[in-house]
Write a structure and sequence with these properties.
62% of the residues lie in helices and 12% in strands. It is of the alpha+beta class and 362 residues long. The strands form 3 sheets. Strands 4-5-3-8-9 form a 5-stranded mixed beta sheet, with helices on both faces.
């Protein structure tokens, strides 16, 4: 009996990991077509239930114990209310067929489907989570325990049958729930590390690595792409005069303003390093980019930066603009041309917009 229960548990564990890992947002690999994930999870849980029934343990005549309840309920954690309905229906039909369509099999199969339906209702009401799953599991265990008492033949130890079922079900469910909760925590940590590796720690914008990847990706696609590179004028004097904490405040405030400026749709903001920022504009031509750059320049210089302690600083930026495919078809060259235009703006007096191939304005 213990060997069969161990096999049953291993089947449950395998399903749980395979259903959880690819069907959540933090994994590197994800199953495509997310709209159909609940159906797929339900079918997977149902098929797992068939294996669980095949390796079930007979504790009395026509009374069997397996991990079908945990697999139905956990499918709801992974996919919401739909999977418990699908999985319980598949398992219920198999249980009825396995029992030769007898009265006991019909009762056991109906009980399985009713638990799946109840789980769907509760997950809809309270949301798909491990906390909700524990509530559903307690309910399902009590209901199934009563069914086992009813189905246990006269002369068998009904209390022992329920005890074996309850102990195995609770050990299986809470062991798997604990392991999956730990796995979820690790996924969250990995997602946080991945996010940190792609964003600038100070401003929350994309970092230079992400900027490079996105610019390469955009230029490999169809359509125009414009680039604005901007640099804070005389930023070194801010650090030298007021200290680096004040300089960090200026950088954060500039990032905040960039996020809130009305820019062409799809604009991608990055901090490329130091006091240099960039704005990628998919689908924009050079004229649209120049207008966006001028909007940024006016927004920055038109309102003083109020720092901690009430310090008010007038900050200006110089900006350079280049465009694909007007100026180049290379992502690296696109940045170099915008950078050249930026330094032309600085050399022309700062607080200006320079478009590659034209004279600076501002």
């Amino acid at each position: 009996m213990f060997y069969q229960l161990a096999v049953n548990f291993c089947i449950l564990f395998t399903f749980s990991v395979l259903s959880y890992w690819p069907f959540q947002d933090r994994a590197r690999f994800r199953v495509p077509f997310p709209r159909f994930h609940p159906i797929l999870i339900g079918v997977m849980a149902g098929i797992t239930g068939l294996f669980l029934l095949d390796s079930s343990v007979t504790v009395a005549d026509k009374v069997i114990v397996d991990a079908r309840l945990p697999v139905i309920i956990l499918s709801g954690v992974f996919g919401g209310p739909v999977p418990p309905i699908i999985s319980s229906l598949i398992i219920a039909i198999d249980r009825i067929i396995l029992g030769g369509f007898g009265d006991e099999a019909l009762i056991a199969g109906s009980n399985t489907f009713l638990i799946g339906a109840a789980a769907a209702i509760i997950f809809t009401w309270r949301g798909a989570s491990f906390r909700t799953a524990r509530f559903v599991f307690h309910y399902a265990t009590v209901q199934t325990g009563l069914v086992i008492i009813y189905l246990s033949p006269e002369g068998s130890d009904k209390i022992l049958n329920v005890f074996i079922f309850a102990v195995y079900s609770y050990i299986s469910f809470f062991t798997i729930a604990f392991l999956l909760a730990e796995l979820s925590g690790h996924f969250r940590k990995l997602a946080g590390i991945e996010q940190l590796s792609r964003t600038d720690y100070l401003t929350g914008l994309n970092n230079n690595r992400t900027f490079g990847e996105l610019s390469e990706s955009l230029l490999n696609g169809e359509g125009s792409v414009a680039l604005i590179v901007l640099d804070i004028d005389r930023f070194k004097s801010v650090n030298d005069t007021y200290g680096h904490p004040a300089g960090d405040e200026v950088l954060r405030e500039l990032a905040f303003r960039l996020k809130n400026i009305r820019l062409p749709k799809g604009a991608v903001l990055s901090r490329n390093g130091g006091e240099e920022f960039s704005v990628l504009l998919p689908g924009a031509d050079k004229q649209e980019a120049a207008e966006a750059a001028e909007n940024i320049r006016q927004t920055v210089c038109g309102n003083p930066f109020i720092l901690e302690g009430g310090l008010s600083l007038t900050i200006t930026v110089s900006l350079g603009v280049s465009a694909h495919p007007e100026d180049t078809t290379s992502a690296k060259h696109l940045y170099e041309l915008a950078d050249k235009a930026l330094y032309r703006a600085k050399n022309s007096g700062r607080n200006r917009v320079a478009v590659y191939g034209t004279q600076p304005v501002g």
